[in-house]
Predict the 3D structure of the following.
Amino acid sequence: MPIKYSEEFKRDAVGLVESGISQKQVCRDLGVSKSALSAWIQDARFQSHGMTPSKDPDEQREMRQALKRIRELEMENEVLRRAAAYLSQVHITPPK
């Protein structure tokens, strides 16, 4: 029979991984399986982007694709932000 973990326990486990501790170490320290911890991390990522985690494999695949697209768009925005900052500095050169 699977063990039922509290939401607080799951959040704490995910927080440990996000703080830089390896998943393997967190699993060993807390006595949870790698698959359970991975699922908690994935659910936390969905929730951080306003998505409700689902057990349906098709919905999970769609949400993973959406998260991937969000990451791509965030990287594109960062590149554009840096380019705009660089280009705005080009015109601020001191007169000779």
Observations:
- Residues 1-53 form a domain with the Arc Repressor Mutant, subunit A fold (CATH 1.10.10).
- Residues 57-90 form the longest helix (34 residues).
- The helical segments are 7-18, 23-30, 34-48, 57-90.
- The CA atoms of residues 87 and 93 lie 11 Å apart.
